[in-house]
2-oxoacid:ferredoxin oxidoreductase, gamma subunit (Citrifermentans bemidjiense), 183 residues
Amino acid sequence: MRKDVLIAGFGGQGVLLAGNLLSYAAIEEGKNVSYFPAYGVEKRGGSATCTVVIADGAVGSPVVGQPSTLVVLNQASLERFGARVRPGGICIVNTSLVDVSALGRDDIKIIPVPMNEIATDLGDLRMVNMVALGAYAAVSGAVQLATLAGALKEALPERNHKYIPANVKAIETGAQIALEKTA
């Protein structure tokens, strides 16, 4: 088994935390992981991406030229990375901020998830990353949702552990919506 994902958005959307959490969950499940974060010099509003490769065997380079899955949180990221998704791959799109009509790809599966609306309905827009991660985990099967929930203690600083139940709810909701969109 080998899964790779490119998560892309802008600074402040929690892209790097999502990748880090995914990595911790994969390690908890005994898989090999490569996590490669990248971000612009700006703290908020600049580009933020990360690549996570999960495998049963050895993981080579953390750089993935054509990801099998792209999780895109904003329009600029779709425009920059949409063409790179491997044919037959998956693009999970935050339809709250992204219009996929200009992508022009019929060789990939597009899964629309209104991530901002879901996060807002759950009480905190900052949970958009958890909604996205739940959608990815459900669609890809890379890690179990319960493992993601358990890994929150590792990925979040202790002062934020009080938010774990809300984050778990966001992960579960993102997974549920993504599975409904693929049915």
User: Anything to note?
Assistant: The two ends are 23 Å apart (CA to CA). The mean pLDDT is 93. Strands lie at 2-10, 32-39, 47-55, 69-72, 90-94, 109-113. The domain at 2-182 is CATH 3.40.920.10 (Pyruvate-ferredoxin Oxidoreductase; domain 3).
